[in-house]
Amino acid sequence: MITGDFQEKVDGAEACPGSVTDGGRFTSKLESSEQRAWLGRFVREVRGDPIRIVVFVFLLLTTFVMLYPFYFMIRNSFMSSSQYFAGQGFSTQSWTQLFSALPVWREMLNSTLICAASIAVIVLCSTMAGFTFAKLAFRGRGFAFVAVIGCMMIPVQSIIIPEYVNLAHFGLINNYLSAILVYGALGTPFATFLMTAYFRGLPEEVIEAGLCDGLTYGRIYWRIALPMARPALVTVVVLQFIQIWDDLLVGLLFLQEPTNRTITVGLAALSSGRVVSIPILMAGAIMSALPAIAVYLVFQRYLIAGLTLGVSK
Amino acid sequence: MDPNSELGTTRRRHLRLERGQLDSERVRAGLLLMLPAALVVGVLVAIPIFQAIYYSMTNWNGITSQWVGPSTYMTLFRNPTFWRVLENNGLLLISVPVAILIPLGIAAMINQRVWGWKIFRSLIFLPTAISWVVIGMVAVRIFADPGAVNSLLRAVGLGFLHRDFLAQPATAILAVALTFVWSMIGTNTIIFLTGMSTIDPAIFEAAAIDGAARWSTFIRITIPLLKRYFQFSFVLTVITAFTALFSLIFIMTGGGPDYGTTTLEFFIYQQAFSVGDFGTGAMIGVVLFVLLFGISIVQLRLLRGEH
């Protein structure tokens, strides 16, 4: 709060117009009604430093550019094919046609099942390995850590061909299991990295207390460490959900039947068919994007935490 | 003495007695807990990369293979199509600074904390949640003729430039690069915002007292302090450009027209699953891996040099 006082002083003296100062952010706290404070801040903003108004307008424009595709999808999905070419009109026809052009619900279910199973694999592998790498010292652990984490650097495309041939050899193409295993394996290195970093922050005393209570290391992992790792777990789950739900390549190769493919693969197939109308495609795009957007909106915080962890470690 | 410390000593003595037994239990537990991750990653990631290296030196159609030797790489390097594809990767690399600097500017603006900045932050980050397939499907219509880009050109009096941007190689790769830059904005903005929030505000206050202008504060103080974030964002952006655009290219252009938008990662897919030449596909995969590995090593060196 020292900063707050200071900024108010800078504001008052107008020593440095607006650089790091905060408009009416601190003075407005004095207002009794919160809503009035909110509006007051806006009024002060508009009256204040012209550069801040320019910044505001720029941010508005940027937001428009970032959200334009969403507007485009929604607007065009509510048109019929002919209305789309005419560039005007409103119709829900494309939405009803979507469900006959694409087994949307079936594919969404496939996506959900595959996401859930792959994430279960990732969570199990990464928390167990992360706990070991952080807390259970033994010879060879360093090598194992580097080997698992190092696999983060291998791009999917570099291994996808041998992977395809191997899994085809075991007759797993068009079987959920192939996609689940591949997604699980691809997600585990980064998740392990994240979990190791998290478990390193766990005090050694917690483990010792568990040992004194007669718990085995396995039970300490399951009963103590895992429940304490909840925030990191949420980050792993959210990151992986968005990644797997949105992936095309793995699904495209391993799940080729309309009955077992994911929504993203179904959408890509529909799109490359070049027969279906654009409004139907846009309706499908919205359906496929909704779950990931919902997860994003609820767990944004965790997504950011996972993203920026790469810098701090 | 308080009872806690006494308890602590007994506990320690107790532990010391059991040290030997505990050691062996720890090794056993550690190996057991590590096993699933090691197995999954080993079988499904590590082994395939060695297979890729082996098969890259063979004639392989997915079923039978004949050993050829490292000369396959010479054949690839003499293939003009390979260089054409690599050129596309190079063109994407040129767009990387743009994909970093635009978000840096946006982050600096959000960091001014103008009215509604939290909402702006959320909305600008929102496209991160949608798939490349969806982004690609919208991008196709935006760069087509008629489409949003052409309308925009007409509106600013550049209507004579109008065309289907995906119909020619030069403009198609530009369209892919622009879409890529657009979709990196959310992620990179968040990275820089996080970086800016770690800077002690006292530094800016000191600069303000010294009468430093806003611009020079940004150039002389903010940017140098964000060095690590620049490096992270650079690596992430390059990795995305080289390994995450498969779906975008698949949807937007299918690699065409005429290899105009085929990058290494897309070339792998084409060679293996369209042409049926699994050996060449695996080989390009190895080239891509080596390329990214090189970039990561350089990055690590830079980081280490600092400490």
What features would you describe in this structure?
The complex is a heterodimer of chains A (313) and B (307). Chain A has 313 residues and is an all-alpha fold. Chain A has 2 domains: 2-97, no CATH class; 100-312, MetI-like fold. Chain A has 15 helices and no strands. Chain A has helices at 2-13, 34-47, 50-77, 81-86, 93-101, 104-135, 141-150, 156-169, 176-200, 204-212, 217-228, 230-246, 249-254, 263-273, 278-312. Chain A is flat. Chain B has 14 helices and 2 strands. In chain B, strands 1-2 form a two-stranded antiparallel ribbon. In chain B, strand 1 (58-60) and strand 2 (65-67) form a beta hairpin. In chain B, helix 2 crosses helix 14 and helix 4 (80-110) packs across helix 11. Chain B is flat. The two termini of chain B are 44 Å apart. The relative contact order of chain B is 0.12. The chains are: A mainly alpha (313), B mainly alpha (307). Chains A and B meet through helix 1, helix 2, helix 3, helix 6 and helix 7 of A and helix 1, helix 2, helix 4, helix 5 and helix 6 of B.
Instruction: Supply Rg of chain B.
Output: 26 Å
What is the overall number of helices of chain B? 14
Give the CATH architecture of the largest domain in chain B. Orthogonal Bundle
> Order of strands across the biggest sheet of chain B?
1-2
User: Average pLDDT of chain A, to the nearest integer?
Assistant: 83
Q: Low-confidence spans of chain B: pLDDT under 50, at least 5 residues?
A: none
Largest sheet of chain A: none
Query: Over the alpha carbons, how many angstroms does the gyration radius of chain A reach?
Result: 26 Å
CATH topology of the largest domain in chain B: MetI-like fold
Under CATH at level 1, the class of the largest domain in chain B stands as Mainly Alpha
* Name given to the CATH homologous superfamily of the largest domain in chain A: MetI-like
Cα end-to-end separation of chain B:
44 Å
Order of helices and strands of chain A: HHHHHHHHHHHHHHH
Helix-strand sequence of chain B: HHEEHHHHHHHHHHHH
Q: In terms of per-residue confidence, which ranges of chain A show pLDDT below 50 for 5 or more consecutive residues?
A: 1-31
